[in-house]
Structures are given as structure tokens and as C-alpha cells.
Design goal:
about 450 residues; 10 strands; 11 helices; alpha/beta; about 10% strand; Rossmann fold; two-stranded antiparallel ribbon; globular; eight-stranded mixed beta sheet
């Protein structure tokens, strides 16, 4: 009897400890899952020595308020299927072929006024569905908001925060970002559902975006993501057999209209032109609108050659001769700002694509847009002063010099005022000296 009791108590003791262990394991797994959904790199002074070190965003990352959060979303890594060489560093950190990087530009002392806190997301599996990339972007945005506003609970049903995140994407990263942005307004796949009135993104800058898909060849055979970028069809527009369900019409569904809408008619019609499709930028605002009105969509891509042929593999400003209407970088939403950049170097379409994200004029336009919450006037001719090869982003015009009359006369009046301030005491001194000489 006693032995049986001891055995029973031992079993209960073990079961109780097993239950505690499983509960602790579940809590730890849940916490790690919450924060492991996205691998986001940030630079923080961890030791208090004034030197920022690279770390991943987590629940223990110190809170930060005041700075402008910017999420950088890298492109597809063709060299490593598991991103062993950290593609985000190649896209955003490292200079390339004599061209600078975004990180170098942000670290330039003359650009400190931007007050940007950069976040760099990393996607390890390069061949998975773009839907999963969009899911991780959503997690990243929610936890960036929480870091800048601790009162914001990620994925709360009724969120309220004044913090806005800017997103700068490159190549495939622009499509992942667009899918996330669309999910804020319409249910997309199994992504978190939209929340009424919630749009935490102030600007979205798409660099070299394949907005209407690619027409890539055999390289797409083993990659679901590349098949999705091809809209689910091969170079000759025959559908893929493998991954067809997940890739077919992926770009068409993202854009919200028939992909053939961007295909020129045959035979050519001189009266045909590309139309406006607001579905390509849901929740967008105009360049002159306040950040509370929505997300400003900006597309930056190389200019076309003299014959109107795109210099980049993702396309350019004009419709291509693709059999579906793919290979067009331009965003056809009426509110979208599309900017052709002529300064991008390269011997072929691949070189041009790689160089685009490192070109000083592109970096300047992107960061100007974030800092000013709008694109510059006459963006096609806008240039930044350079310090070496690194662009210096112009600061906003002081409020007292924004009126037209001030722009014309303000500086002269200030100069005259300073001169007068110096002359008045001098005249008074001369008068006193003269009176002293004359005497009573």
C-alpha cells in the first residue's frame, strides 16, 4: 500500500513537473515566435559606450522615440538560396563598383538632420512565396511601431499611434512591400486582416520595381518567388506546371486589373496609351497631401534609351513588347510618382539593375522623399550636392522663407538689416565725437 502510494505520488510529481515544463516551453516558444517572425537588423548602443552595434530587433531592444523609422526591404538573392551572404548588406550597406550605399549616406554628418532610424529586414529563404515576405514585413512594421511608441500593441484590433514608418524597397522587395500595403486595405491570402483606418506607412519608395512582372527565362525554374514575379508564366507566356496554383496571375492579382492592360495592341494603334489604375496603389495619397491622407507611392527606375526601350530587366516608363504586358516598372496609379533617373550607369540591363540602388541620384531622391514627405519639384532635373560620391540631402526651407516675397527679398532685407544694425551705433559714435570736438 505504502509503495503504491509512493509510486502514485512519484507519477503525479513527474506529471506536475512535465506540465510545468511544457507550459514554460509553450510560453518561450510563443514569445520567440512573436519576435522571430521577422529577422530585422538595427543599430543600437548596447554597451553605453556611444558606439552603435548591429543587433536584431527583439522584445528587449531599447525603446526609441522621436526618430523617423525607415524599413529597408532587400531584393532577391540569386547567389544564395538561403541568403548566406546577407543580401540586405549588399543592397543597403556596401558600396558597389565605385558607387555609394544608403548606409554611407545616412552616416554622413551633413545628413544627420534626417533623424532616420534605419531597420533592415532579412529574408533567408529566397525561393519561398512572396506572401511570406509580406507577412514578415507586417511583423516588422508592427514591432517597429511598438519600439517608437511603447503604447502600441502589435496587431491589436483597434490600433492608435501617431508614428508612421517609411518603407524603401528594392527589386523583389518592392513587390513584397506592395503586397503588405495592399493587405492593409483588402484581405490578401492568409495575411492578417485589415483594420479600419489603420495605415502606418507614410511613404513607400520602390527602387527598380518589377511592378508588372518579369519575363525571365530558365532561372525561374526552381524558385516560386521568381515564378510569381513572372506572373506564373514563362518567358514565352506558357504557364508553369510546378507551383502553378501559387504563381499563376500573381502580379495581375496584386495590381487588381488584367495584366494585358499594359500590353500595346497589335497592330500598333497610335492613339493607344497606358491607362490609370488606382488599384495599383490602394490607400495612396498625392504628393501634396499630408501623411495622414495615406501612403505616398514613389517609383524610381532608369530612363529608357533613345528608342524607348528599358535599360533595366524590370522595365521602365514605357510599355514593352512582352507577350503579356510585363516588364514595366511604372506604377499606373494616378497618385503614384514615377521618376526616371538618367544617371544610372551600366553596360547591360543586369548591370543597370544592380547599380540602381547604389546610384547617388536615386539615394538622394529616396531620402529626400522620406525627409520632406514628398518628392522634390521637377524631380527629373533635381540633383543633390555630393561629398565625394555620397549625396548630401537638402534640408527643408525654413518656414519664414517659404512665402514668395521672402524668396525674392528676404535675404536682401536681412542683409540690409544687419548693415543698419551696425551703422546706427557707428553714426551715434561719430555724432558724439563731433560734439566733443566742438565743445560747449
Amino acid at each position: 500500500m505504502g509503495c503504491a502510494t509512493r509510486r502514485t505520488q512519484g507519477v503525479l510529481f513527474n506529471l506536475r513537473h512535465l506540465g510545468i515544463f511544457l507550459a514554460a516551453f509553450w510560453v518561450a516558444s510563443w514569445v520567440s515566435t512573436v519576435w522571430a517572425q521577422a529577422e530585422v537588423y538595427v543599430y543600437v548602443d548596447l554597451d553605453g559606450d556611444g558606439v552603435k552595434e548591429e543587433t536584431t530587433l527583439s522584445a528587449t531592444t531599447p525603446a526609441l522615440q522621436g526618430k523617423i523609422p525607415v524599413l529597408f526591404v532587400h531584393g532577391h538573392n540569386l547567389l544564395s538560396q538561403n541568403d548566406a551572404d546577407f543580401n540586405f548588406r549588399k543592397n543597403w550597406h556596401n558600396p558597389h563598383d565605385g558607387l555609394p550605399s544608403f548606409k554611407q549616406t545616412l552616416e554622413l554628418p551633413e545628413n544627420a538632420w534626417l533623424d532616420i532610424e534605419p531597420y533592415y529586414i532579412r529574408f533567408q529563404d529566397q525561393n519561398r512565396s512572396i506572401v511570406e515576405d509580406a507577412r514578415e514585413i507586417g511583423w516588422a512594421v508592427e514591432h517597429i511601431l511598438h519600439r517608437h511608441d511603447p503604447n502600441h500593441a502589435p496587431f491589436t484590433p483597434n490600433p492608435f499611434t501617431n508614428v508612421k514608418v517609411a518603407i524603401i524597397g528594392y527589386s523583389k522587395g518592392t513587390i513584397s512591400s506592395r503586397l503588405y500595403l495592399k493587405s492593409l486595405h483588402e484581405q490578401q491570402y492568409d495575411l492578417p486582416p485589415p483594420r479600419d483606418g489603420f495605415n502606418p506607412v507614410s511613404e513607400f519608395i520602390a527602387i527598380a520595381p518589377p511592378n508588372h512582372g518579369l519575363a525571365a527565362g530558365i532561372i525561374t525554374a526552381v524558385s516560386l518567388a521568381l515564378k510569381q514575379l513572372n506572373n506564373g508564366y514563362r518567358y514565352d507566356c506558357s504557364p508553369y506546371i510546378v507551383d502553378q496554383a501559387e504563381s499563376k496571375d500573381f502580379i495581375e492579382n496584386l495590381n487588381g486589373h488584367a495584366i494585358g492592360d499594359s500590353q500595346p495592341p497589335s497592330p500598333p494603334d497610335p492613339n493607344w496609351s497606358l491607362g490609370d489604375y488606382p488599384q495599383e496603389a490602394p490607400g495612396s495619397r498625392s504628393n501634396s497631401g499630408p501623411t495622414s491622407a495615406g501612403t505616398l507611392h514613389v517609383a524610381l527606375y532608369p530612363n529608357s534609351d533613345a528608342n524607348g526601350v528599358a535599360r533595366d530587366v524590370v522595365g521602365g516608363h514605357y510599355a514593352s513588347n512582352d507577350c503579356q504586358g510585363r516588364v514595366l516598372a511604372r506604377n499606373l496609379a494616378p497618385d503614384a510618382e514615377n521618376i526616371e533617373v538618367s544617371a544610372i550607369p551600366g553596360q547591360n540591363t543586369t548591370d543597370v539593375h544592380v547599380n540602381t540602388v547604389h546610384t547617388p541620384e536615386v539615394i538622394c531622391l529616396a531620402l529626400y522623399t522620406v525627409g520632406h514627405h514628398r518628392v522634390p519639384n521637377n524631380p527629373s532635373t533635381f540633383v543633390c550636392e555630393k561629398i565625394g560620391q555620397i549625396p548630401r540631402i537638402p534640408q527643408p526651407t525654413p518656414w519664414w522663407c517659404k512665402w514668395w516675397w521672402c524668396k525674392l527679398w528676404c535675404r536682401w532685407w536681412i542683409i540690409l538689416g544687419l548693415v543698419a544694425m551696425g551703422l546706427i551705433p557707428y553714426i551715434y559714435w561719430l555724432r558724439r565725437r563731433r560734439m566733443t570736438r566742438i565743445g560747449p
